[in-house]
Amino acid sequence: MSVLLNPYLSFRGTARQAIEFYQSVFGGEVTISTFAELHGNEDPDDQDKVMHSALTADNGFVLMASDTPNSMDYSPGNNYSVSLSGDEDAVLHGYWDKLSDGGTVTLPLEKAPWGDSFGMCIDKFGVSWMVNISGAPE
After folding, report:
1. What is the pLDDT of residue 3?
2. pLDDT beneath 50, residues of the chain
3. For 107-110, which contacts have Cβ atoms below 8 Å and span 24 or more sequence positions?
4. 3-state secondary structure labels for all residues of the chain
5. 65 closest CA partner among 51, 49, 45
6. Is the alpha carbon torsion for 114, 120, 49, 72 positive or negative?
7. How many CB atoms lie within 10 A of CB 121?
8. Quick one: pLDDT at residue 138?
9. pTM for this one?
């Protein structure tokens, strides 16, 4: 059982190139999934874009990135989130409750198309957070 804290960067159509660049800098393994593969949305222009990617560097740290869908606002300089992930359901739900309290829930913490529970919020200080609970029950 574990809980991880990772930076999550957002791009507009260049996430694949960015994560591959960071791999050339830090080494390690990259995984990339598109919106089409994860059934992330129905916009034909987004299907080949990156819905989620992760670089696990040789030293163990993880950097995540995705393309912002056309339907969402994208503002360079605000293109990051802090990602909390793992399989500690109670711990991660507790973090979610505290982070979203007084903030803005942009995507409720609920079952996601990939089978985990996932949510996004902006805390009361303006920091964007993502919470992903692996294999969490509905």
Report:
1. 86
2. none
3. 109/133
4. CCEEEEEEEEECCCHHHHHHHHHHHHCCEEEEEEHHHHCCCCCHHHCCCEEEEEEECCCCCEEEEEECCCCCCCCCCCCEEEEEEECCHHHHHHHHHHHHCCCEEEEEEEECCCCCEEEEEECCCCCEEEEEECCCCC
5. 51
6. positive
7. 22
8. 54
9. 0.71
pLDDT tens per residue, range 93-132: 999 999 999 999 999 999 999 999 999 999 887 889 999 9
- Which amino acid, 99? L
Residue 120: closest CA among 134, 131, 133: 131
41's tokens: 């949305």
Q: What domains does the chain contain, in order, with CATH numbers?
A: 3-133 (3.10.180.10)
